[in-house]
Structures are given as C-alpha cells and as structure tokens.
Glucosamine-6-phosphate deaminase (Mammaliicoccus fleurettii), 246 residues
Amino acid sequence: MKIINLGSKEEACHYVANELLKQIISNKKSVLGLATGGTMVRVYEQLVNLIRINEIDLSEITTFNLDEYIGIDYDHPESYYTYMHDVLFNHLPTWNEEKIHLPNGSAENLQEEIKRYEDLLDKEGPVDVQILGIGENGHIGFNEPGTSFDSLTSIVGLTQSTIEANSRYFETKEEVPEQAISMGIHSILKAKRIILLAYGPKKADAIRKLLTGEITTDLPASALYNHPNVEVILDNNAYLSEQEEI
Ligand SMILES: O=P(O)(O)OC[C@H]1O[C@](O)(CO)[C@@H](O)[C@@H]1O
C-alpha cells in the first residue's frame, strides 16, 4: 500500500481525476469503479473538465458504482443514481447509459438484484481502477465494521455513525435510509488497481487506524492491505493527526 499525502484537498482530488483520465486515455474500453459521497464531488468536477479539454469519447467506457441506498427511489435527490448523474454523467454527452451500472436499491427482488450486480461485475470486469472514499468508521462502499473480507455484493445495514454522517445530505436524520446495496469487500478487491481518497479532519481517525497496519474487520478499509496495488491519497488534515499520534 502506497500512502501519499498531497497536502491539499485540491491536489489530492486532482491526482485521482488525473489517474482516471490516464486510464480512460490508455484504454477506451476501460472499466471504472466509481464511488459517491462528498469526497468525490471535486474529483468528478475536475474529471469533467479534463475529459472536455481532451475531447474524449466515453461511449465504450463501463462504470460500476459501489453502492446505492435501499428505501428511496432511484431518482430521489439523494440517491447515488441522482448524485452520479448530477455530478458526472449529465455533464458529458458521450457516456453510454447502457454501460453505466449502479445497484438498483428499488428493485422488487433485492436478492435477485445483488446476484445480478455481482454477476455483471464478473462478466464485464475486472475493474481497471476502483476509486474509494472512506467512512468516518473506516467503511469502504457501505461495508461497515465487522463485515467479512469475503463479502460479495449484498444488502447491508448502515451503522448509526454512517447515518449520522450522511444525514447532512438529508433534511432530517430520520430520512436517511438504514439499508443499502453495497459491493462487498471481496468484490471491491477484484479490481486491478485501487485508489482510496481521504481528506479533511473528519477522516483523520480512520486514516490513523489504517496506517497502523493492523488488518482487522473492525476497520473494513484495512482489507486493502490484502491487495497488491493500492494507493491512499491524503491531504494534510487527514494525515496530520496520524503523525501527531506517533
Ligand atoms: O465522502 P463522504 O461523504 O465522507 O462518504 C464516505 C464514503 O461513504 C460512502 O458514502 C458510502 O459508500 C461512500 O460513497 C463514500 O466514499
């Protein structure tokens, strides 16, 4: 695992956007693993700009998102389907909607949906570059502490800490869904390359725990130590308190 502190949020987001751009340029049939959350907003803004200035055709690019809420419609303002379209897909005309994949949290049969998603990932994958944020409790995707590292796409419950953290996007905490469909930890680790991005003081505790090197299901992100090609991209705020602890 390579740990890289790029100092600022802007530099860290720029690095991730640049790596996605380079992947797309190196293979116009790339498979990208995409994440949501506040962390990725600036990455996608920068990526949109880079794709525009390079006039890149995205029609053969496949994308897989990590997760989606259960209990709100796909077009709810806070669904990850809406987020991805608002922040990335609607800004560039050449995305092929048929190659854009998110789990369907409003599917009638959720058991069938989780199997469909994992099967599709195996059929279209492996993911060339998977980008990841990290929860304040160390989750990746919506795989909360305690999740088996062997997990595949499944229906997951959100912890109070995640509901609390994500309530900033909803009018009230009560509106935050309590369940989601998430790619599992094993599903995420099938990617060829993984880039985890974390910035800001709220992520410092999870990063400090990650950087101890202990591999434990208490910290889902520590499963990334079992993957040969992982970069953790940080800013001073996410990294500093780790140094202060030493
Ligand atoms: O970037 P945020 O909003 O802090 O969220 C952290 C992570 O939790 C999630 O919201 C759940 O998967 C991710 O999308 C995100 O990477």
The chain has a mean pLDDT of 96.
